[in-house]
Amino acid sequence: MKKLFQVLWTTIGLLLVYLLFWPVDVDPAVWEAMEPPEMKGKFAPNDYLQDTEILGVNDGIGPEDIAVDEAGNMYAGYEDGRIIKYDVFGKNMGVFVNTGGRPLGLDFDDAGNLVIADANQGLLRADSQGNLVTLTLESGGTPFKFTDDVDVASDGKIYFSDASSRYGIHDYKFDLVAHQPYGRLLVYDPNTKKTTTLLSDLYFANGVAVSPNDDFILVSETSEYRIQKYWLKGDKAGQSEIIIDNMPGFPDGISSNGKGIYWVAMVSLRKEIVDNLGEKPFIRKMILRLPEKMQPAPDRHGFVLGIDGTGNIIHNLQHPDPDSYSPITSVEEKNGILYLGSLTYPGLARISAP
């Protein structure tokens, strides 16, 4: 019995040493979360998204973003690098291209090329035949670590985000736990082939949406629960401002419907434990040492917001159910239909726009 207790205490001691001192490549900042808004009024739960039509079931995991061409065909990028083409009925038309990385944001340019923000491979472009070229891999001497979302402006310039200049997609939790401003908003000019950093010091720079007149860009900062506007034209050109702060969840992809509405995918609701540990960096570091199944995980909750260019809530679409299509990481509107993507769901979805 004495030997058994010795083994037990030795095991407990080793576990404590591991939790307290095992090296983790993260230096968490101290931050204080604002009290989250209540889920009522403009954020009140509803069942609008319960009737989503799910397509491409089990074709792959995580069609994070959906692009729709002029003929209504859908393109979805999966975690194994494949971008699959679907016809208007949702029939799988085969692999359009394989990036060899992790395709995230997708958007078509005016020439019909598919522009791809690949988390591992940088900013890419595929022509109508699926021929792939790399457009850019760095800006200002700093390589992209986590190329995330992309939107092509009417003048052909490509605006995109690098979620983190330190952590890649497989270590995204490290970035969220660190709560450090490693993200960037960038632009690539196809004419000059020059890449420029527009904004740096962003907290997990994620969704990107250009206004219909190319006069500003919206970019979501996922870990700060907010959306910034960067002005491209006018008296405020080159300046930025926060248009919506202290959101009830983590904002992910953003897209413009071309008519004044910007769809924001809310990947999940906020978790009290995450906010409460903002001022406890040491404990946050300990949590990263735990097995993944023991770490805090988001609750399944389908959630999409429609805002205007000043941050006013126009639409609130939800499905608060563990069987909902979620987590939703992107929303694109085309011809009155909302196309939904997810980082982990085995399928894409669509539903009529309100």
How would you describe this protein?
- With 354 residues, the chain is mainly beta.
- The chain has a single domain, classed as Neuraminidase (6 Propeller), CATH 2.120.10.
- It has helices spanning 2-21, 172-178, 272-276, 281-289, and strands at residues 53-55, 66-68, 74-77, 82-86, 92-98, 103-108, 114-118, 122-126, 132-136, 138-139, 142-143, 147-152, 158-162, 183-189, 194-202, 205-210, 216-221, 226-231, 240-244, 249-256, 262-269, 302-307, 313-319, 330-334, 337-341, 348-352.
- It has a 4-stranded antiparallel sheet with strand order 1-26-25-24, with no helix packed on it. A 4-stranded antiparallel sheet has the order 2-3-4-5, with no helix packed on it.
Would you kindly provide a brief summary of this structure?
The chain contains 4 helices and 26 strands. By secondary structure, the protein is mainly beta. The protein has one domain (40-352): TolB, C-terminal domain (Neuraminidase), CATH 2.120.10.
CATH topology name, in short, is Neuraminidase
Helix/strand class: mainly beta
The gyration radius over C-alpha positions equals 21 Å
Specify the CATH homologous superfamily: TolB, C-terminal domain
Number of domains: 1
Main sheet record: 4 strands, antiparallel
CATH class: Mainly Beta
Distance between the termini: 68 Å
Can you count the beta strands?
26
What string, H for helix and E for strand, traces the elements in order?
A: HEEEEEEEEEEEEEHEEEEEEEEHHEEEEE
Q: What is the CATH architecture annotation?
A: 6 Propeller
Strand order of the largest sheet: 1-26-25-24
List segments where confidence is low: pLDDT < 50 over at least 5 consecutive residues: 14-21
What gross morphology would you assign? globular
Q: Treating each run of at least 4 consecutive H or I residues as one helix, how many helices?
A: 4
What is the overall pLDDT average? 93
What proportion of the residues is helical, as a percent range?
10-25%
Relative strand content? 35-45%
